[in-house]
Protein 1
Amino acid sequence: MRTLDQIQTNYFAIDFFLTMSCNKDCHYCTSYTLEQRNLTVDMDFLRSTLHYLRDYKCRINLLGGEPGLIKNLYEVIAEVKSNPNHVCEVLSNSTVRRRYPEVLKDPEIIYVEHMVLDFYEHEITKLGPKSYEFHEVNEFNNYNLVIKTPNFEEFKHLYPDDIKKLSHKNTLWKQFNGRSPGFNVIHQAAEIDRKMCSAFPMVPVIDFEKQHIVHCSKKFANNSILSKNFDITQENIDKMMTFNLFKYENYCVNCTEYVNPKGHFPLKKYVSLLNV
Amino acid sequence: MIEIINNRIVNIDDDGNMVEINDANMIELYNSMKVMVGDVVIDESLIKPIEDIYHYIIEKIYTMPEYAHEISFKSFDEHPKEKLLIAFNKFFFDMIEKYENTGPNTD
């Protein structure tokens, strides 16, 4: 079984936005619609995209919207897993746990559950059923994802038991970014970190609705300026994977997304991937 | 002309005057380059177009030297080494130009 650490070190991450549809409306999310559409993945498009990526070690993140709404999700996962260069990751608000429980039993699939909506004075609001517990330490590559929202910082001390339950290797703590109105997070990473991020952004998106490559997943929807996009061709995929497709764009200049202070991935990842 | 004398970077002008480049980060970058690519050749004629990412890596190591020491570079083959060296020279000579343009006023 490949561990998450090995995968994060050695594989580039690419988001597959299978659908924009979601059954939740998190206040900090910008890439969803409550309209239910595009719920069946075009397998021909998926196969051709994966074929273009066949020689590259990639972590394919299946998300959206909510991938648990996809009607042929098992078929999609099987296709992604068919290439040993590709690792399948699924990010869900727990709908996958309910509708596609087999995903959680397969350690070759990285399952990341974004179940905590936010922390409040009286409760931790969950996106899934209240009966769902957080994932405990496990060897199935199942992870909790908790976003460190401003409310998390303010109210976490009220929930020591929950924080204790979440404090282990199978919880990913994600830095909150200030995309949503009213959250005045304006921290900006050093320009060089944003430049490195834009060279192979964190992370590029394959948009399954419009069927093209999107430079930046953060400038995806509900933004006044949208990310640059490119046709999906072998040439563009090759350029993308060898740092020749994406550039430092105007929207990167003012980006307030959190970028890891040491660049969005460690230099050792470049070392193995720059040998082109 | 740039010379490395006793591990110091020295700019020698047309009259033979030697001016040491005192930029500590540049010296650190030079030392990091030695670890990364072995023989560091400082030669402006090496500069040619390469992917932006190599320039970013050099700029990153300049601003954050420890970034270069996160790993050993055994898996680094010749091709990226060559490109890193090109990026290093580009960065280096851009800095020299900036240094010369903002040097002490001798009027």
Protein 2
Amino acid sequence: MKQLAFYPGCALQSMSWDYRESINQVAVKLGLDLIEIPDWTCCGATAAHSLDERMSVILPARNLASAESLGLDLAVACPMCFKRLNYSRQMLEQKRVDDPWSLQSTVAIRDLARLLATEPMLQQIRENVENPLTHLRVVCYYGCQVVRPPKIIGFKDYENPQHLDRIAAAVGATPIDWSFKATCCGASIGIPKKELGLSLVNKLLMAARASGAQAIIVCCPLCQSNLDLYQPEICRQFGYGQTNAGLPILYYTELLGIAFNMGSVRRGFKSHMVNPELLFDRIAAR
Amino acid sequence: MSPTNSKFNETVLVIGAGIAGMQAALDLAAMNRPVVLLERSPAIGGNMPRLDKTFPTNDCSMCMISPRMVACARHPLIRTITLSELMSLEGEPGSFVARIRQYPRYVDPGVCIGCGQCVEKCPKKVPNAYNADLDKRKAIYFVYPQAIPMVPSIDTETCIYFQKGRCRACEKVCPVQAVRLEDRTSELDLPVGAVVLAGGYELALVHGAGEYGHGRYPNVVTNLEYERMLSATGPHGGHPKRPSDGRKPQRVAWIQCVASRDPARNRNFCSSVCCMAAVKQALLTCEHDAEAEATIFYMDIRAHGKDFDRYVLRARDNYGVRLIPSMLSQVVQNPADQNLIVQYYNRRTLAHEEEEFDLVVLSAGMKPSESILPAIDRLGIEQNKYGFVVSDPERPGCTSREGIFVCGALDGPKDIPESVTGASAAAASAAAMLHMISDAQPSFMGSQAIADQQSKPNEVGPAPHSEQTEIQNTAADPHQRDSNHDHKTAQASPRIGVFICHCGRNIAGVIDVSALTDFARTLPHVAAAENFLFTCSTQTQDRIKELIAEHGLNRVVVAACSPRTHEPLFRETLQQAGLNKYLFEMANIRDQCSWVHARDPEAATNKARQLIQAAVARATLLEPIEDVVTQVSPQALIIGGGLAGMTAALTLADQGVSAIVVEKSARLGGVARNIYHTLEGLSPRRLAEQLARRVKTHRNIAVFTEATIAEIDGSAGHFKGAIKHDGDSIPVDFGAIVVATGGEPYRPTEYFYGEHPNIVTQLELEKRLSTDSDFAPQTTVMIQCVGSRCDEFPLCSRICCAAAVKNAIHIMEKNPAASVYILYRDMRTFGFKEEYYKKARDLGVMFIKFDLATSPEVQLTNRNMKVKVFDPASQLDLEIKPDLLALSVGVRPRPEAEQIAKMLKLPAMQEGFFLEAHPKLSPLDFSTAGIHLCGLAHSPRFMEETLAQASGAACRAAGLLVQKEIQTSGVVAEVQRDRCSSCLACVYSCPYHVPVMDSDGISFIDPRGCQGCGICAAECPAKAIVFKHYTDPQTIAQTRVAAHSQLIL
Amino acid sequence: MERTNDTLQINGRENLWARAVSMETGIQVASCYQCLRCSNSCPVSTFMDIKPHQIVRLVQLGQKEKLLKCSAIWICLSCEMCTTYCPNEIDVAALLNHLKNSVVCSQITPAEYEIAAFHEVFMDVLQKHGRMNDLQLMQRFKFKTLSHGHLPSRDEMSDDISLALELLKRRRLRLFPERSRAANEIKRVLRQHGHKGVSS
């Protein structure tokens, strides 16, 4: 078992508990021992840097310090947290802000999805597939935090990221290429500015449908919430009517859980506004 | 490997056979230097053949470059080695040893006749990279149909034989057993004196990077891919098709500056040509399809070349090309139909737009060719941070290493005329170096002629050289013709030999060649008729000579391909057989018959009969003609003593060719004397002084200041003129002329110029900044395009954007708290000058864009200046109170140019700049042979560009001046004096201005100047002009026969 | 942005603010050549009163007040398309963020009050619990906007309530989510580093 420190972030403990569940289940299968950082604190998300940039450097760093004291590389599931952690570290390394936590920069910060998309892990995934999802056509939606900006993220694949597509392919599904892989869903802007949020989400849902996808695979809790929770309202407002069945929005770990035939992962489905059960039943029936 | 003896060798190794490499090779060969032309790919030509039509003339690229390629391939002094690269270079300049690695072609070029059977029979199809993978080629293939050498090569990575050991179909089907599957890589050591690098460019776009969806969305293509689609020689025959579904693209968008002007991706330079290329592609698209809509998304339209702005306006106003100053970052694909959707903010309408396009073209920038980079590494040549070779701006074509020169896009992205110019300049530099190093005499006539000229008064010449080396004068006709023999031949009754070609299956596959041969025998005056499988082969030449002797033939008709292909070959065969070469006629029964009527063999055969009959009729009346041989006056006249004139003179003089410089003013140096420093930190002033010193003391140069030239007469190789100096008139002879009359700044009437000491031109500002250390303006406004790009003067003056940036940087560096505002229309800091544009911005210079409709307003009240301009970026009206207003005025040609134009009958634009023979491929020549052009007289130029042009023009002149004599074709127009009615029709109609009225008022056409176009003969109302070799009787005989035959088609 | 008839007097000192911003943040606003890639790649530029490229130019022209009062800086999603695609390596997203921070330091009321208020409430909850508490976040946010004069319509209220119920049903809204024991430590460190709030 490979040990990694794990930083879940706020969303995974409430709004996106299904993500957390599926990660727990799937990690075990894939030989990952994820050790949650004790007393982790919020990374600050968008609010911290919007009000005072220095807060956005200070807040995430505490969690880095925890991982360092554990002596383990830090796996992060939420792309927003991932980016904030990287940003914080870079700013502290460049001494742009004073470091209250005395970081040593001894541990790596790993994005969980990218980690699972490395070739050795993909191999493990393929070996664990018991229910190949061969009739499933999906688009992978990465959101904005996991690929931009390249200097902070440390990868240059912002034009056409592939890691979720590779994971989907590894379980037998067909990832369809589309132009909106990393187009922002609006994050939390929908709360204070609903119309704006709805318009951004609608654009994404329309594009996903137009590409022929049956589901959208995501890695970010905020993306999942936006794309999932607003669907009924969007149908009402933009007049899609009953003919447009909802588009299930799945975490890649949920996808893995289904492919690994883990019933426990399916339990998370009831948290979704658009229930993926129907989709998987249809596929299983084929 | 060290050379066993370091013997001086005159051969120049040119690496890269694109347009620059070929030009350098041809120029060097013209100066009697042997050249080895190395090319990595299987065919010469480089990138240029892949282009469709070229701006600004819209001439077809292939049509322009084919004659150069043929000339290269044919030139006796140029040895072309394809599929090769340079592995190492040992030794010293003048005595290098180059190790060449030659990769196997697997086809013997000495035997191959280019019939194409092997390609036809090859079973393996692969994507054709030449056509950007839009179509397929075979594993054995010609790079493109017009490739030279016309010999296929085998791609071992895809060939079935090389991969799996089977097939060998090509070998079996080759009619001359040219396929050599056992070919191996070989190496050879070449002793050379100098090396010219001309490796060229490729696109910088990485296929997998996915920028704008390239490589991901099928309908996003690069500019070169689109050129192939537009090109008649391309995969779609000139009718662009969308990659996804083959439909015609109607709404096409161009995205400029892809992988250029991009410091974030370490490409902080401009690729110089993409703006014009995009405009051209847009124009051609709309021209081709009236319903097409072309849209270009850009930042600045860099139309800084000669007359480019007019072209852009034509595209916009006549063809509706939309120019939108709003750059895109992303393109979205519509999954239903693979159309591309873009969103942009339109800063004219202040609205967000969303548009859909059928095709998106990425104007991708250049990088140096990958294939030559290892060689450059090995040679240890300095490269800039983008990998381009660094060339010395003050010594055109010189690299960091002595003896190694560079030209073309390898030392920076540039347009074709600049590549050609740089090639000639590099050739000149190489030749000059070799001349200086050579132990023995220079191997051409310059020195002897100079010694001859010693006897003439008032001319400075060198001390005579005592030795003479063997002259390899291959320009003269190697075959001794006996004119008596010719005369006899002409008088005797015509005995015609008709030789009909099978051309493999090309002709024989459609036409009944043996029936034709029988038919030919029945024609009047035909003494012998044969047919051959390949008439152009060496064996057939021998057979033809035998037949000529056997049957006493005195005229030959070959019915085969186009005269363009092999006429010179057949003419040479006739000469070798003792016949005058003009007693030869060809009938094109391939390109104009079997190829185009392949579906109707009977009709094709009939037509071939007609063609042969007509050819025989003409051949019957052919006369022997003598080519004209003239002695060359081995001296050049340089009109103008500025940087251009001086550089031209020195370039010639350094090769042992004497030059006369005639300068109107009292001092040498021209406008350069008043320019203190360039953007890159060079000093034109200092250079002008240096060159003036060298020119005045060079033993091969005579300088006349306060002098003009008058009464120029004659033609290439033998001009005569009179230098007017100090009341005297000094007669001079010269073989070539270089026009370097220069330019001057425009004196503005706009913006209160002259009414305030601080309203100045950039030149004046630069002087003040350079000479007055206390001068440090606090607030400066610069206005671009003053007196340029307007109705009165539509040309761009090219240098003003860089001049403004230069002065702005100077001001800011002197005083970091200063403010500079540059009001511009398009920032045209092309090439590596883009870095300075960034530097200026980083220093805090603010750039405000305006267009013709919103020109800035300047107010002058008392001594206070106020500039009002609308800033589209902030949508605010700005009011600036500068203490200095600098006007970027453009360049005008000197008024004296008009006089020179009249005297030499040279064409000029309405704006006064001279018009060269061809804006792309002959920028330094006039249509009139023997006269060349350089410097500001050509068009606004930067200092290093002027130096390159001058060097290049001198090189072009040297090609003529180093010959003892020149031979011009005898196919010329001749006036029958008794018929001439002095109507002047020929004088007006000749494009080369050759006919003159002599003292009797009769038209005289100098056979040495006549280019043999035939226009005057057609125009002459009295039918007084005989056009030799195309006389009326000959032409009428041919036409009459053709018209009276039974043409069934 | 609409064209106004205002004329901006340029006196050569307008770039002092830009230079200060550059020095403080490292963002080289002077390098901009107005290509518009930032505005064209921004997913919400259609909703902005001042577009990103205009914001850069206005910083160069010293238009501090105009920018601090605009709504665009709050609309920005921090998705960083602009930063990623800027050829001159100008971190446009960081610039807009800096402007937001400047509003917070000033007396100016944010043009998008709700958005700023949301951020502030988020930080309040964060400091109290060390982590997020969605229910508290929503409650406080609604209350804050209410007290700022935003009266929700009936539809809005019913939408909010039904969404809340759905979330509760799905256990996505927890009544008592886990707190971090480090909440006080966080609060202390933030105070030490001078955290600011938003003025109403």
